[in-house]
TrEMBL record:
Keyword Signal on entry: no
Similarity comment text for this entry: Belongs to the LysR transcriptional regulatory family.
Presence of the UniProt keyword Transcription regulation in the record: yes
Record's keyword terms, sorted: DNA-binding, Transcription, Transcription regulation
InterPro entries: LysR_HTH_N, LysR_subst-bd, WH-like_DNA-bd_sf, WH_DNA-bd_sf
Superkingdom per UniProt: Bacteria
Annotated protein name in UniProt: LysR substrate-binding domain-containing protein
Length: 290
């Protein structure tokens, strides 16, 4: 027995006429009669009482009609569930992010737009350093990463898309000598202890991106892995912190910000698996990449 046999049977049972049922199903009447006869042979007896003008259900046919409708409805529901998953309308998207993705408004904008069109899909967020995001996406414990293009490590099998450019600012204590300036150049940073938003492994990349001026001797470079750590060092006067300009949204006691006028930060990336199969994840990526 196949689902089409049940669909043919239900159509005849509801129309009480083979001709009308054949038109409804877009098949020939002879095809329909053959399929119903095959079904009756399989169940072992007649499902209809046939007359010259119409057909009536037998007792077995009445019972089968009730259950056939349930079976067909469940089959249709099963198809819809699979289709919704493929279309990304259900499921889970696990997102790793760096703080800059939130401060720039990029991650929240992408989430808001996605939720409007895919309200049945669940989003799970984890704040995690960039290199760990890449590893987690590659290993399958995260689906998408929002991170700066910095110290990412092995990206084989991954797709990296630039989501937003990043400008840089300097965070420093309000009574610092440089706070009197409207803007600060990279060369002016060379005289001061420097706080950089990077791990120790990423420190050299950050300094190289800022340019040769920061290679001048200084007392110390303080690499930090979190936004608040960088701002805490700056507010305490330990050093001047080079941070994404979006960080200036954070207001802390004794802290001020000045634009860094001759350097730019690493792009904010969206990281995903190149062979992603999840409909929900693909739908989220389509939304975030526009």
């Amino acid at each position: 027995m196949e689902l089409r046999h049940l669909r043919y049977f239900v159509a005849v049972a509801e129309e009480r006429h083979f001709g009308r049922a054949a038109v409804r199903l877009h098949v020939t009447q002879s095809t329909l009669s053959t399929q119903v006869q095959a079904l009756e042979k399989e169940v072992g007896g007649p499902l209809f009482r046939r007359t010259s003008r119409r057909v009536e259900l037998t007792e077995a046919g009445e019972l089968m009609l009730t259950h056939a409708r349930v079976t067909l409805a469940q089959a249709d529901h099963t198809v819809q569930v699979a289709r919704r998953s493929i279309e990304g309308k259900t499921g889970l998207v696990r997102i790793g992010f760096s703080g800059v993705a939130v401060l720039q408004g990029v991650l929240t904008a992408d989430m808001h737009a996605f939720r409007r069109t895919h309200p049945g899909t669940e989003l799970c967020l984890t704040e995690i350093p960039p290199a760990e995001q890449v590893k987690a996406v590659r290993e399958g414990t995260l689906d998408v990463g929002y991170c700066p293009r910095l110290g990412l490590g092995d990206t084989d099998g991954l797709t990296l898309r630039s989501r937003a450019a990043t400008t840089l600012s300097v965070a420093l204590r309000q009574d610092h000598e440089l706070a009197a300036a409207a803007t600060i150049s990279v060369a002016e940073l060379a005289r001061w202890d420097l706080v950089v938003y990077a791990t120790e492994d990423e420190e050299a990349q950050v300094l190289a991106q800022l340019g040769p001026a920061v290679g001048h001797p200084r007392s110390r470079v303080h690499p930090v892995t979190g936004t608040l750590g960088a701002l805490a060092f700056a507010a305490a006067g330990v050093g001047v912190a080079v941070v994404p300009t979006s960080t200036t949204r954070i207001d802390l006691p004794d802290l001020t910000y000045r634009p860094l006028d001759d350097a730019s930060g690493p792009d904010l990336l969206v990281v995903s698996r190149s062979d992603e199969l999840s409909g929900a994840v693909r739908a989220f990526l389509d939304r975030s990449w526009g």
